[in-house]
Specification:
With 247 residues, the chain is α+β, with helices and mostly antiparallel strands. It has a single domain (24-50, 67-245), classed as Sandwich (Jelly Rolls), CATH 2.60.120.620. It has helices at residues 14-23, 34-49, 77-83, 86-96, 122-125; strands at residues 25-28, 69-70, 100-108, 128-129, 134-139, 143-144, 151-153, 165-167, 179-181, 190-192, 194-195, 199-203, 208-210, 222-229, 233-234, 244-245. The strands form five sheets. Strands 1, 2, 3, 5, 12, 14 and 16 form a seven-stranded antiparallel sheet that branches. Strands 10-7-13 form a three-stranded antiparallel sheet, with no helix packed on it. A two-stranded antiparallel ribbon has the order 4-15. The structure holds 2-oxoglutaric acid (AKG). The site of 2-oxoglutaric acid (AKG) has 10 residues, from strand 13 and strand 14.
Length: 247
């Protein structure tokens, strides 16, 4: 018997949908409760606090809260549950015109002193056809701001198409293993200040970045999932081929 699938919510109004089309991103305030975020933070912290760390989460012990945790949704049911929040499912269905599926998740611990990620377009890393990918970036701290390494976005750049990417220029600020957009004046980027439970939805072509966490004692945890429309497919990346439905 086919499972009964409730229709997706419609959390976005016309203005928010228009804003996304024009600017390449839209911020939704307070999409999940502090209790849920706190429970998830504790759970994710415990994953790398185990001895030994599970294979899928293993990394250099000295950097375990600096390095992002890749694809917890593939291994962990709590991570999958947060990936499928009804408000996320609904907003994505409105923005994509059809149901979305998840292809990637990342949890950023980003403890003080951790580097940010240089300006880039997500499509550069995750090609998909047809191009439908949208990220949902959830703030997992009371406040995410310039000091603890918030996201910066460059409104309207999702209309520029895919730009060339090259070596990261400022290794003091940004992770070295990623790449950086070239030939664009990124000084037009603006910070996105967020509170716990806010979700930023942004296009795969929007130029965005984050800086080093320069705070003394404020972490910058966040959970970021990447979604494509259900009829779209990830190209070239065997590791991200599997589609996770949101219901
Ligand atoms: O959260 C960050 O610091 C960077 C995240 C990002 O660029 C992304 O998810 O594409």
């Amino acid at each position: 018997m086919e499972a009964i699938k409730p229709p997706p919510l419609k959390p976005l109004n016309e203005n928010q949908i228009d804003f996304f089309r024009e600017n390449g991103y839209v911020l939704l305030k307070k999409c999940c409760s502090d209790d849920l975020v706190d429970a998830f933070n504790g759970h994710i912290y415990d994953i790398r606090d185990q001895t030994p760390m599970p294979d899928w989460a293993a990394c250099d012990e000295r950097k375990k809260y600096a390095v992002r945790l890749f694809n917890p949704h593939k291994h962990d049911s709590f991570s999958r549950q947060l990936m499928k929040l009804p408000i996320i499912r609904g907003a994505l269905a409105q923005l994509m015109g059809r149901e979305a599926v998840c292809v990637q998740s990342m949890y950023f611990y980003k403890e003080p002193g951790s580097p940010g990620q240089a300006s880039h377009q997500d499509y550069y890393y995750i090609k998909n056809d047809p191009m439908t990918m949208i990220a949902a970036w959830t703030a997992m701290e009371d406040l995410v701001d310039e000091e603890n390494g918030c996201l910066w976005v460059m409104p309207g750049t999702h209309k520029l198409g895919l730009l060339p990417h090259g070596a990261v220029k400022n290794l003091e600020e940004h992770e070295s293993h990623t790449e950086e957009t070239e030939g664009v004046d990124t000084s037009r980027q603006i910070p996105v200040i967020m509170e716990k439970g806010d979700i930023l939805f942004f296009s795969e072509l929007l130029i965005h970045s984050s800086n080093k966490n320069r705070s003394k004692d404020r972490w910058r945890r966040s959970y970021v999932c990447h979604y494509i429309r259900e009829d779209s497919n990830v190209l070239h990346r065997e590791d991200l081929r599997q589609k996770y439905p949101l219901y």
